[in-house]
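User: I'm curious whether this sequence folds into something compact or stays loose and floppy. Could you predict its structure so I can see for myself?
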Amino acid sequence: MDSSDTARLDRWLWAARFFKTRADAALAVRAGHVLVNDRRARPAKSLRVSDALRIKKGFFTQKITVTKLLEKRVSPALAGEAYQEDPLSIEKRKEQAAALRLQPTPIRTHCGRPDKKARRQIERLRYAETGN
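Assistant: Here's the prediction. I'll summarize afterward.
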């Protein structure tokens, strides 16, 4: 077996631009967010062409098939040629993104420490509970 027939999983994920750093890729693999052929793997796993990967990042999961092995980080256009994403995966990600966009943004009622007025209200509540 030739070394050009395989590539390290963490290095390939970094080179194909799924993660910003190789350390981030290795951490995701160790955490179980990246499955190779539906099995957990280690960052040094030898990846081959036609291996199926399931990559979970945040709310989204991508199911891809490796079509080209990469050792060095390449441009986004070339990185896109290194894998083929499952059409159902693309459709599901689009639906999830649309659902997330429809959710209301959380309302932030306070920022930082309470001001003088808020502190007095807190004190009133505390003393009202204890009866003093």
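Summary: The longest strand covers residues 60-66. The chain has a mean pLDDT of 90.
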